[in-house]
Design a protein that fits this description.
The protein has 78 residues and is mainly α. It has one domain: Up-down Bundle (F1FO ATP Synthase), CATH 1.20.20.10. Helix content is 91%, strand content 0%. The chain has 2 helices and no strands. The two termini are 15 Å apart.
Length: 78
């Protein structure tokens, strides 16, 4: 396999694993927030803000993987 092929393969595997991890992470985060709101409904606003902040951090990791994959694809075009 050529180096360009490895670059394409690495980009595909990298973004696939990042998307999988992001989906699992956000699912766990939202699930735990729903459980917490079910226990203490009066904390809904605070918990929702914290959940959105956590989702933003998890999404940022996936975006970093996307940027790295795009850079790898750029290397594979040469």
């Amino acid at each position: 396999m050529t180096p360009q092929g490895f670059a394409w393969l690495g980009a595909g595997i990298g973004i696939g694993l990042a998307a999988l991890g992001t989906g699992i992470g956000i699912g766990i985060l939202v699930g735990k927030t729903v459980e917490a709101v079910a226990r203490q409904p009066e904390m809904r606003g605070t918990l929702q803000r914290l959940m959105i902040l956590g989702i933003a951090f998890v999404e940022a990791l996936c975006l970093y993987a996307l940027v790295i994959s795009i850079m790898l694809i750029g290397k594979g075009v040469e």
